[in-house]
Amino acid sequence: MTYDYTIHVLNKLPQNNKLRLHCASGDDDLGTHTIDVGYDFHWHFCDGWTGRTLFFCHLYWGSKQIAFYVFRSKWAYRCWLDCYWEARSDGIYFSGKNPPGALEKKYDWHT
């Protein structure tokens, strides 16, 4: 059985700050995008029966950046068909549903 997932990466930085991101898997390169505050960059995919799907994103905000996995098949239980990530000024937050419930800080920015 396969499931259809949606990954969301939302720019929740302070007003007038753009977020640049590049997301990809081993099979799909989603390209580099620059998104405004409040914008939700999202995509859909079907997790294959082999259970080896992996997506990562590299986020850039000014001189700060971070690269991390946004989906791994073995994490599927953490995402109720949606993985929701927010880029904020103090780091990257996660919720396993959309609309998100309480978000948990997962990563700090690197300089």
TrEMBL record:
The keyword Secreted applies. The keyword Lyase does not apply. It holds the Pfam family Self-incomp_S1. Signal peptide: none annotated. Its main location: secreted. GO terms for biological process: rejection of self pollen. GO terms for cellular component: extracellular region. Keywords: Secreted, Self-incompatibility, Signal. It is found in: Secreted. InterPro entries: Self-incomp_S1. Belongs to the plant self-incompatibility (S1) protein family. This is S-protein homolog. It comes from Handroanthus impetiginosus.
